[in-house]
Predict the 3D structure of the following.
Amino acid sequence: MVVTRARSRRLAVVGLVAALSVAGLAACSPDSGAPAQADTGILTVAASAAVTTWDPVSSFSTEALYMGNLYEPLLWKNPEGAAEEFTPAIAEKWETSEDGLTWTFTIRDGVTFHDGETVDAAAVVASIEAARERAGASFIWAPLDSVEATDDLTVVMHLKYSAPMDLVAASTYGAWIVSPKALEAAAQDEKYFEAGVDAGTGPYVLDSYEPGSKVVLKAYEDYWNDDKAPNYDIVDISITPDAVTAQQMLTAGEVDFATTVPLENVESVAEQTGATVRTANSPFNYLGYFNTLRAPLDDPAVRQALSYAVPYQDLIDVGVQGFGTQAHGPVPKGIFPYSDSVPQYTYDLERAKELLAEAGHPDGFTLTLSYASENPAEARFVPLIKDSFAKIGVDVEVTAELFNQQWEKAKADPQNAQDIFIVYYWPTYSDAGSDNLYSLFHSSEEPFFNLSYWNNPEYDALIENAGTLTGSDRDAAQAEYEKAMGMLYDQAPGLYLFDAQVVTVVPEDLKIGQFNENYPFTTFFAPIEPAA
């Protein structure tokens, strides 16, 4: 069985994402009468997302904020609580064989790319083949053996093993459907897209781009979906990495909407502007690896004791201003295979002391802990862990390092790596079983992202089996994954801290639609929403 692994692109964006994810990226669904400048058809936005590439195939970073308005996948994955799991996009219907090895997608008739090309099955196949070959997230297509257009509007995927190709086809990375003409041009010139070319089917076209400064989107006149058409003629976006600056632009009336407002200021900004504050699930999860290769953390009882000594709610209150929920393991709320039934540790210092005494450590010991210096939330909550552990006799020596530095160090020499490694993680697409549960805790001789170094064949077998069931029997896969998450609780190779929430300041004169945790880096400027 081939499964996905954690990806090094996290190293490039983790610092920026730390600010983005918990400070207000929103899935926007404004109506035509909402914005302050609605009479002009212009929406002005301060957005924190940078553009690393305009190539929809290689895209693997925060430009996803814009990509989701320019391009469409075969399917959109709906947020938790929606009546349907998916909303049809380029594919109007789909089905899978009983064994999960063959997936058939019927392509929507009458759709055109922004360059005038017709969307058909051959165009979809070309996009998937390009993604398999060179996408930043090409690994999501690992289960695919072959893909073919059996007629003008039918695409058939043949898999090496059963896999959830509906989730793969709805990915925010590596799954956009792109004009074949543009793909051919990019094959001849790798910089083809970088001048600001777009070749999607989405509700907007890329009107202009000033690197590091401005992105202007324009409504696509021939967009296929009349019911979900753009509500604005123009979306004028100022790239504003600094959240304080974005806040000032919003409160001064320079923009209609800001994707990022400092968490500590959201209430005051809402009061000042007559806005409301909304929260939603996000796919962003904080955890702490224990180095299970070194004493005393090679003892599960010690790891359990330390798990009882974490003041979880205090971490949420201080780290993200209360905008989070205690984690049920490493799978974030709202993402498959999350379950409320997975047990959690409570804050219980007496129980922690009892377990340490039973494990032979009544006087405690000293540990080292590292966290990413570029992550402000970690800088705020890590001292609380240190202070609480001190109350049970455990002294923690804390080091702040750039994430990529501590990551390389931990991979290179596990025996001499830090005892506790704070990690901020999210799945590449909406399957945290094949990503989070595998990437973070599956054993391997040369660890890539399992920096607990925990090795448990029973756990490995559970998640490997679940991965083969997800495409054909999702309920059975869920049951297997829940058993595996129960093992993570019992054996405690990590501290499962909290799932961060996305916070949106919603101005009174805007209608901001439901944030979709499956597309955390995309702000939608057209109403791509399922029925509630």
Q: What stands out?
A: Residues 132 and 499 are 31 Å apart (CA to CA).
